[in-house]
C-alpha cells in the first residue's frame, strides 16, 4: 500500500517535471543525484525510464560505452549559436578555432577535424603509407586491426602485420623490431612505414601506455625511419590518469587521433593532429574519403566545449570505475573477479568465477528488471554492459553516469550474485 502510494506520487512528480522541462514522458531528470558538477550542464541529464507492468519505473544505467552520451543544454546552445562558413574552403571560423585549440593542446603543429575516429586512423595510415603495398605494424588487439573493417587494406592498399598486445596494451619491443622489414627494395617485401599504438588501450580495458614505452617505440621507429601514429581515441583519459599534459604523451608520436565523441561528450567528431605537412596531406585524404564537410562549425562548437570543459571531469569517471571494481571484489556471495591494478581509467573488464554462468547470461540478468521496488533489491535497475573478448565483461563510465548511478549498478550486481547463489543452492 505504502509503496503503491509512493509510486503513484513519484510518477505524478515525474510528469510534472517532464512537463516543465518540456520533455517527453519517457524522460526524467535524475532526482537527488549526488554531485552535479557544472560540466553536467553540457550533457543531457535526462534518464530514460522504461515503462513496465503499468506504473513501475525502471532506472537505466548504461555502461555499454562512453559513446552513448548526449549533448545537453549548454552544448546544444553553443551549437545553435556557432559561427559557420564553408569548411572545405577553410572558411569555417569555429572549425578553425577548434583545430587551433587541439593543435596547441596536443603540442602538434596542426590539427584537422574529421567525422570519426575510424576515418582519422585511416587518413593517418594513408598519409604515412603512401605507396600501395606499404606495410604498417599494429597491435593484434588494436581497434585499427579488429574494429575498423580492415579499411587500411580495403581502401588504402596498405598491408598490416601484427605484434602481440600484452595485457597492459603495450607490446614487446624485440618483437616489434623483428617485424620491421629490411629487404626494401627487394621485390619480395613490402616496405615498413608505420607503427600504430593505442592509448588508452580499448580491448585491454582502458590501459594507459607507460611514457617510457612510448619513448622506446619512438626511438626504435626513428632508428628505422618508420612513423608512429597513436590511436588516441581516449588519450585524454591517459593524460588525466598519468597527471601529465597530453603534449607530454604526444611528443613521442608523429600523429594522433583523439575522439571528441567518447568521454569528452561531443556528439560527433575526432581530431587528427600532426606536423603541418602531415595535416596538409590529411586534408586531401579526408576529401577523397568523403569527409569534407561544409558548415560544420555547428558540430565543431560542441568539440570546442569538449576540449575546454570536459577533460578534467574524466577523473570522475575513473573514480566511479574504481568504486564499482572494488564492489565487485567485495561482493558477498563472491561471484566476480577483477584485477584492481588493471583498472586505470574509465573502462573496466571483469570476469565471473562461476563458469556455469556465461557473460551473455550475466549481462541479460543485469539488464532484466522485475517489480519496481528499487534500489533495496536492485530489481528496478536496468544495467547495460557487454560481454567482451576472452570471456570477460566490459563496463564503461562516462558523463552520463553519476556516483548515484554507480551505486545503483552496485546494488544490481549484488542482487544478481544473491539470486545466482540461491539458484545454485536450490539445484544442488
Ligand atoms: C572508438 C574508437 C575508435 C573509432 O572511433 P569512431 O569514431 O567510432 O570511428 C578508434 N580507436 C579506438 C581505440 C576507439 O575506442
Automatic annotation (TrEMBL):
<dbReference type="InterPro" id="IPR015424">
    <property type="entry name" value="PyrdxlP-dep_Trfase"/>
</dbReference>
<dbReference type="InterPro" id="IPR015422">
    <property type="entry name" value="PyrdxlP-dep_Trfase_small"/>
</dbReference>
<keyword id="KW-0663">Pyridoxal phosphate</keyword>
<dbReference type="InterPro" id="IPR015421">
    <property type="entry name" value="PyrdxlP-dep_Trfase_major"/>
</dbReference>
<dbReference type="InterPro" id="IPR001597">
    <property type="entry name" value="ArAA_b-elim_lyase/Thr_aldolase"/>
</dbReference>
<dbReference type="GO" id="GO:0044283">
    <property type="term" value="P:small molecule biosynthetic process"/>
</dbReference>
<keyword id="KW-0456">Lyase</keyword>
<protein>
    <recommendedName>
        <fullName>Aromatic amino acid beta-eliminating lyase/threonine aldolase domain-containing protein</fullName>
    </recommendedName>
</protein>
<feature type="domain" description="Aromatic amino acid beta-eliminating lyase/threonine aldolase">
    <location>
        <begin position="62"/>
        <end position="348"/>
    </location>
</feature>
<dbReference type="GO" id="GO:0016829">
    <property type="term" value="F:lyase activity"/>
</dbReference>
<comment type="similarity">
    <text>Belongs to the threonine aldolase family.</text>
</comment>
<dbReference type="InterPro" id="IPR023603">
    <property type="entry name" value="Low_specificity_L-TA-like"/>
</dbReference>
<feature type="modified residue" description="N6-(pyridoxal phosphate)lysine">
    <location>
        <position position="262"/>
    </location>
</feature>
<dbReference type="Pfam" id="PF01212">
    <property type="entry name" value="Beta_elim_lyase"/>
</dbReference>
Amino acid at each position: 500500500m505504502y509503496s503503491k502510494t509512493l509510486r503513484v506520487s513519484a510518477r505524478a512528480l515525474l510528469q510534472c517535471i517532464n512537463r516543465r522541462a518540456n520533455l517527453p514522458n519517457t524522460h526524467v531528470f535524475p532526482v537527488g543525484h549526488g554531485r552535479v558538477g557544472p560540466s553536467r550542464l553540457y550533457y543531457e541529464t535526462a534518464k530514460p525510464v522504461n515503462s513496465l507492468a503499468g506504473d513501475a519505473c525502471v532506472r537505466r544505467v548504461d555502461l555499454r560505452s562512453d559513446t552513448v552520451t548526449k549533448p545537453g543544454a549548454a552544448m546544444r546552445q553553443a551549437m545553435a549559436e556557432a559561427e559557420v562558413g564553408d569548411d572545405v574552403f577553410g572558411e569555417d571560423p569555429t572549425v578553425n578555432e577548434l583545430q587551433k585549440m587541439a593543435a596547441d593542446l596536443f603540442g602538434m603543429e596542426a590539427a584537422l577535424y574529421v567525422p570519426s575516429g575510424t576515418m582519422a586512423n585511416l587518413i593517418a595510415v594513408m598519409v604515412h603509407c603512401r605507396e600501395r603495398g606499404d606495410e604498417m605494424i599494429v597491435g593484434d588487439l588494436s581497434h585499427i586491426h579488429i574494429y575498423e573493417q580492415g579499411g587500411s587494406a580495403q581502401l588504402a592498399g596498405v598491408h598490416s602485420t601484427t605484434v602481440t598486445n600484452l595485457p597492459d596494451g603495450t607490446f614487446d619491443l624485440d618483437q616489434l623490431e623483428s617485424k620491421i622489414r629490411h629487404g626494401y627494395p627487394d621485390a619480395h617485401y613490402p616496405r615498413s612505414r608505420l607503427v600504430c599504438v593505442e592509448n588508452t588501450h580499448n580491448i585491454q580495458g582502458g590501459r594507459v601506455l607507460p611514457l617510457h614505452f612510448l619513448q622506446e617505440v619512438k626511438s626504435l621507429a626513428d632508428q628505422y625511419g618508420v612513423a608512429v601514429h597513436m590511436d588516441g581515441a581516449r588519450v585524454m583519459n591517459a593524460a588525466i590518469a598519468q597527471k601529465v599534459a597530453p603534449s607530454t604523451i604526444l611528443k613521442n608520436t608523429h600523429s594522433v587521433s583523439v575522439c571528441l565523441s567518447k568521454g569528452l561528450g561531443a556528439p560527433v567528431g575526432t581530431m587528427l593532429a600532426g606536423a603541418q605537412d602531415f595535416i596538409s596531406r590529411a586534408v586531401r585524404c579526408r576529401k577523397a574519403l568523403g569527409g569534407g564537410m561544409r558548415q560544420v562549425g555547428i558540430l565543431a562548437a560542441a568539440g570546442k566545449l569538449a576540449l575546454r570543459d570536459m577533460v578534467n571531469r574524466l577523473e570522475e569517471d575513473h573514480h566511479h570505475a574504481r568504486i564499482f571494481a572494488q564492489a565487485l571484489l567485495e561482493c558477498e556471495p563472491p561471484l566476480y573477479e577483477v584485477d584492481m591494478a588493471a583498472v586505470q581509467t574509465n573502462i573496466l573488464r571483469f570476469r565471473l568465477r562461476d563458469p556455469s554462468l556465461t557473460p551473455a547470461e550475466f549481462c541479460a540478468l543485469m539488464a532484466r528488471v522485475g517489480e519496481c521496488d528499487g534500489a533495496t533489491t536492485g530489481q528496478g535497475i536496468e544495467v547495460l554492459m557487454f560481454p567482451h573478448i576472452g570471456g570477460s565483461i566490459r563496463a564503461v563510465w562516462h558523463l552520463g553516469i553519476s556516483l548515484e548511478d554507480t551505486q545503483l549498478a552496485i546494488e544490481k550486481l549484488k542482487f544478481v550474485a544473491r539470486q545466482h547463489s540461491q539458484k545454485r543452492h536450490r539445484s544442488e
